[in-house]
Amino acid sequence: MRPSTPINPELIAKQNARLEKDLDADYEHLGEVLARQRVDLEDLTARIQRLAVAIPTWGVGSGGTRFARFPVAGEPRNVFEKLEDCAVIQQLGRATPAVSPHFPWDRADDLGGLREVAHNYGLAFDAVNSNTFEDLPGQLSYKFGSLTHTDRAVREQAIAHNLECIEIGKQLGSRALTVWIGDGSNFPGQQNLGAALERYLESMREIVAALPPGWRAFIEHKLYEPALYSSVIADWGTSFICASRLGANVQCLVDLGHHAPTTNIEQIVARLIQFGKLGGFHFNDSKYGDDDLDTGSVNPFQIFLIFNELVDAELRGAPGFAPAYMLDQSHNVTDPIESLLESATALQRAHAQALMVDREALRAAQEANDALMANRTLRAAVNMDLEPAIKMARKRAGGAIDPIAVFRASRYRNCKASERPQELTGKSGIV
Ligand code: RM4
Ligand code: MN
Ligand code: MN
């Protein structure tokens, strides 16, 4: 069956036709520039097309803060409507063929039907995210923790939820479980720091034992929030040691916003690659903390430096290297569809720039301790305008040369505003 297309393909074709001539000229020129550097543009374009980034289902709704949430008109009200928005992003941008669901937020009675709907949009399911940081009516409370709670009954409930997520994931065709817990403490002395981590390992052992063959579990660390004095899985060191203890199918997930400002994240990435424990990413950008701003909007150079490590690992065939790329951001003042389109492009750009790094020159400069030349080699790649390759990759894959322009011209948001009347809940919160 042909994938269903929420945006009229003729609109994409019409808009592309207007931009094609300029793109062809720019692409040809870029080809000449790259040829001078002995780089094949067609090869670069093909590599750009191969980068796949998953969309988080919670990202297509408006985000918010502890203070308020200002929903965008026509935002999705359930997982099926979220899939429709993800399909728009994929149809226009062609870099996001998978969706990462979050349970119980995305609960659906007919999982087979859900998988079918995704399939018809040309979408697959990536890592399943569990949620033991919120209470559900009638359940034991996670106020004082979940997988690390002092009460065995609460830990068992949290374990059971993760097992259910694996079961759901099996039916959706997913092959990974991402576990992020908010567990920790707000007061010095509140928690026995060692005992809490012991309980975490004990709980995770049960979850890992239930992973089907070929599945991975990703441990996501986060410095602070909701726990404000100590978090059980606060940093990559804790994440790494737990992943190492738990087995070969457990790896670390790096959410860019989950570190102290000024942390050298690319070095963390290099370490995890070196020891075969890099599971994947939640990409976003930040200035102060877990801001969940759009990827590449504040510090695109950092994303490039991370991709510099990733490309290096790929080129040298680092063992166990198969990171899952996902976005995880909160769109408080923009249209989430537009933000996610821009963010996926930011990742393609950082990836393409990293592919342009002259690895031989870099190695030579490093060997010679020529710091200036080494840094210049990196910046030479960043300074290149690779937009024609990114646009061509998208166009050839059936997407829009200018996805935001097509999205706005489609009036999709206005249509959804009348099709999806919202209930005013007055709820604040991160999602
Ligand atoms: C957390 C973390 C998790 C995400 C939740 C919604 O801060 O980033 O990945 O599932 O937010
Ligand atoms: Mn995250
Ligand atoms: Mn986060």
Commentary on this structure:
By secondary structure, this protein is α/β, with parallel strands linked by helices. The chain contains 15 helices and twelve strands. It has helices spanning 9-36, 41-50, 79-93, 111-120, 152-172, 193-209, 236-246, 265-274, 300-315, 336-355, 359-367, 371-382, 387-396, 403-410, 412-419; strands spanning 54-56, 98-100, 102-103, 124-125, 128-130, 176-179, 184-185, 216-220, 230-231, 250-255, 278-283, 324-327. The two termini are 34 Å apart.
Bound small-molecule species: beta-L-rhamnopyranose, manganese (II) ion
User: Alpha-carbon distance between the termini?
Assistant: 34 Å
Could you tell me the strand content as a percent range? 5-15%
How many distinct beta strands? Answer: 12
Alpha-carbon Rg, integer: 22 Å
Task: Give the spatial strand order of the biggest sheet.
Answer: 3-5-6-8-10-11-12
Global morphology: globular
Low-confidence regions: none
Share of residues in helices:
40-55%
H/I helix tally: 15
Biggest sheet record: 7 strands, parallel
Q: What structural class should be given to the helix and strand makeup?
A: alpha/beta
Tell me the series of helices and strands, N- to C-terminal: HHEHEEHEEHEEHEEHEHEHEHHHHHH
Overall mean pLDDT: 97
